[in-house]
Description:
Layout: H1 2-5, H2 34-43, E1 75-82, H3 90-106, E2 109-116, E3 120-128, H4 131-140, E4 144-149, H5 157-164, E5 182-186, H6 207-220, H7 233-239, E6 244-246, H8 267-276, H9 287-294, H10 296-328, H11 334-340, E7 347-348, E8 361-362, H12 367-374, H13 379-409, H14 415-419, H15 424-429, E9 432-435, E10 442-445, H16 448-471, H17 474-494, H18 500-529, E11 535-536, E12 539-540, E13 542-543, E14 546-547, H19 556-594, H20 604-610, H21 618-633, H22 641-663, H23 677-700, H24 703-712, H25 720-723, E15 725-727, E16 738-740, H26 751-775
Antiparallel strand pairs: 1-3, 1-6, 2-3, 4-5, 7-8, 9-10, 11-12, 13-14, 15-16
Helix pairs in contact: 8-22, 9-10, 10-13, 10-22, 11-12, 13-23, 13-26, 16-17, 16-18, 17-18, 18-23, 19-22, 21-22, 21-23, 23-26
Amino acid sequence: MAEKLGLNGTGISMEAYGATHYVQPEDKVRIIDHDQMSSDDDDDDDDVIDMSERSKSPGEHKDCYFTDGRRKIDFVLVYEEEIDKPMKNIKFIQWRNKFLSSLRKVGLEMEEESIQSEKKMINFIKLYAPWELCCFYAEDLCMRAPLQAHPNPSDNWSDKILSALKIPNVMKSDIPNQPLDFYTCQFKKSKLDRFLGSDNHETYFTNVQRSRILWEILATSAYGKRKRAEIGVERLIEEGVYTAAFPLHDGPYQKPKHYVHPDTLNARQVLYDYWARWGTWYKYQPLDSIREYFGEKIGIYFAWLGFYTAWLLPAAMVGVMVFLFGLFTMNDNTPANEICESGEKYRMCPLCDEEIGCEYWYLSDVCVFVRVAYLFDHPGTVFYAVFVSFWAVTFLEYWKRKNASLAHHWDVLDFEEEEERPRPEYAAKAPTYEKNAITGVKEPYFPPRDRIPRILSGMAVIVIMIFLVIIFIIAVIMYRVLVYEKLALKLTQWEMHRTQTEFEDQLTFKVFIFQFVNFYSSIFYIAFFKGRFVGYPGHYGTFFGLRNEECNNGGCLIELAQQLAVIMIGKQVINNAQEIIVPKMRSWWHRFKVSLDRSLVKSRLEEDYELIENEGLFQEYLEMVLQFGFITIFVAAFPLAPLFALLNNWVEIRLDAHKFVCETRRPVADRAQDIGVWFTILDSMAQLAVISNGFLIAFTSEFLPRLLFQYQYDWDLSGYTNFSLANAPNGTLHKTCRYKDFRDDDGEFSLFYWHLLAIRLSFVIVFEHIVFEYVN
């Protein structure tokens, strides 16, 4: 790496990188007493630079700097040692020394600080990238550099309308220290004098850019003799050589005691006060500030979540109106009235075999169920299914526009095609180097002939796993807990995807396919299979000798509505409770294991180390995408689903914001152009929703049978209840009884059934054709 940087041939010496400031790993560990350190800092005027004399972000504390007060801590490595057994694992010490040596060769400056608890020594290695190193990696990583400032073009359109009408916008929030917007181009050191702020080497690169540079170095530095395999801090953390690696937060998230003005707040305090607090639940999200602090990847997630939540509002309003329509017209439902008033007129066949004790029952017994089922099965729900099908595809089209606008505003339009680098693991294992067709730069290259067998093998394994899940329902839980996600990760690593975006997209797709089957299998079964193949008295359908399951007395649609109600209300409440409680429990347990002396004033290093590790965005996206499926694929069965999704997401935004700002370590700020493969998944689910709602209305709902009866017999539906019941063939059961189906006395399908089947199939074709034509 030293040769790559030109350290031996360009006149840049190791001393120029501050090599004299390195703390050698074999040096004696230095214990810092916080109170003594504060007084020493005040007295040592020669070594500590007055922070007021340099340009810095508002609210920054000296704990974010080396002890000289000049060099900002760009990244922190942490490892723990038992006091009684400091040399417990010689292999770990060798790896750590080799890794630190690799970092020194690159040019990173280091300082070590150690905190002693009762049983262990916690060692913090503070890392700093000097100017020349930052310039090299900024050019290598294709970072954007500011050329000229321009007005922020991302103003909210609704805010413009309200301002023109002179109506105050209560959702708007005046965010202090908002990031400026610039015209930019790729960073080139040779054109440094053209870039704004390049004269100030200490503040030119933002915290986000510096952490990204440090992560690139940490992810590509070797720690063992096998350089192609033993690289990267992630592997070292997995092995337990280091316990954590993270960039520091800018400071505490609470306002200072002597709070004077919003402009004095640091970036973390701004995000907490104007975004992560519950009191800001109705305010616009400060997306530019989120992106400036966490990077584009997290910024795009919250932009998508906010956009999706806003679009849920019209869907929820229409859903409530459809539900109220059903509620107000419940007593006008002629078939339900006929059932409730039938008394003992219709004796129904047992829902299971007589031999095991199942009894006959009367249709009037299910009066309450039939009336409740009408709330989710009336003409309004058909309209709502059509509405949501159009809503889903329109939402995705408008999100593409919003995403493109954000990508342009945040300078990531060409990130995946031109700027994204190969993954460290890909670069380490690639057998050759080839010229990139777009950038013209030689890069590690994995020939397609070597990758295609890997990908095909991975696909075959995934198909086998899905069949196992479908066949063995019990295995779903076992795979979810023990096997599947780890297997998906190993397969994706083995497939050798070039960039991190490709790697994450493939991993996400594999895991989501499994989760989709896991979460939706029972819902699809109730909606489209349960009660479909039961046969009729005397000729019941069986499976392994057991009679096929029938729907309950209220019908399959009410069962589906019950399932969705449990998911959209109960499950979401439990998930939100977990998001509140679990991070606090994990944080408490982590602090307990660390066991730092609580009497001391903790430094920024200790406070951030006590936070829990940030686990990324996969679970956040997964929860929302699964929710999107529930409110689109089966919305005809539960029109209130978008309302509960809207209420949940208002809470979800603040929960996620609070977690990122207050409860987790600051993640490495990754760049991203869009939401990745999640958009493809959402688009597929929207297409599936059109098909699903078409079949749900045609084959599960009573809408089409009633409509055909109205057309052929009676528009008021008088007599529909008796018409929809068939007589059990003579001699098949001990008593005469009725069952729900369109059959004659011999068990053969009636002419009405075949007319109805033709109408059902025609409805599905017309319904899907209309929606898909709109999409295209």
